[in-house]
């Protein structure tokens, strides 16, 4: 049989797209959907009564699919709402996010616990995050990650611990870091770039330290998965160079180019993280959420029919296609943060490309959704339509490789100004679903 092109698949899916009718009596586009007791269940989802904590109710099993939400802590994006809140207020805000996930019939929360070479648990390697107390290294008086794991599991939610491997600070002043910060103890590990500080991925001792720091959380807590985002080598900044000359001179001699060496460094981190997770807590999964374009087809015929200004293979030195094809990771969540029909990066074309990439592999494919764009007046007109995200799920359902979606992010689930999340729930999440295992 002749092979059908990705472009043909994408066009066919888009042309066949039929929108589900709104559910009579659903809350429509105005706010959160109230679930029936236990409606978010997967394997053992607990009901929440109006008067007390989760109970023992176990609803029937349903089809498994990822229904996830990211909770970003960096710069207090989603949680805590601001630094320096009392511990009980921080805890209450976190639990409110978990309860909201349950009401929206989600089954997974992806909590950022190492936003910038720091920690949201009592780490022996890195300081407490400044996003908790306002001062890096100050004990917040409670254990956010331990609480999150316990409270998520009590509600039948999976808890994926989200780590950023190499970002050190969103500023370029090492003296602003805690006095005990490893980046101050080892200044040679750090590269300033674009007004920020990063660990140098080209140094084996850096990679070994980063891995130890992350695996400490995996050893301490029964997290369901380890999660990386899209930051490896930093996104390019015009007119600036990431200065890893010394590392390249020491370690790059066997490689045909600096780019090949950098990709090797990131590949090694991915493989060693996967092996470390298996060693420390067998059964815990490993997932990555990369920028949505591996390479444009104009750059590489294996790439997507896109014209993106960033390509992970070339600009972030992240060979995401290989990670999927070789099953170095258990799941991938490409950030498809574009609308259907976008001229440079069409959601339909990318859904088709990632589906073909994942086909025949053991790597699960979920799609990252830009809920934060819905209703934002600064975004293209497609995002003013509250049905845009629902269309994404309808289109993706035509690809059996797509096993669910993750929404960015928790603050936007709560606010939902355009009613886009409510529409997704009404159209697609009418009943319970457990996460894929």
UniProtKB/TrEMBL annotation:
Chain segments carrying region Disordered: 20-61
InterPro entries: Divisome_Glycosyl_Hydrolase, GH, GHL10
Pfam families: GHL10 (PF02638)
Signal peptide residues on this chain, from the entry's feature table: 1-25
Low complexity: bias regions: 35-52
Keywords: Signal
Chain ranges of the Glycosyl hydrolase-like domain: 65-378
Name this polypeptide is given: Glycosyl hydrolase-like 10 domain-containing protein
Organism: Streptomyces rubradiris (Streptomyces achromogenes subsp. rubradiris)
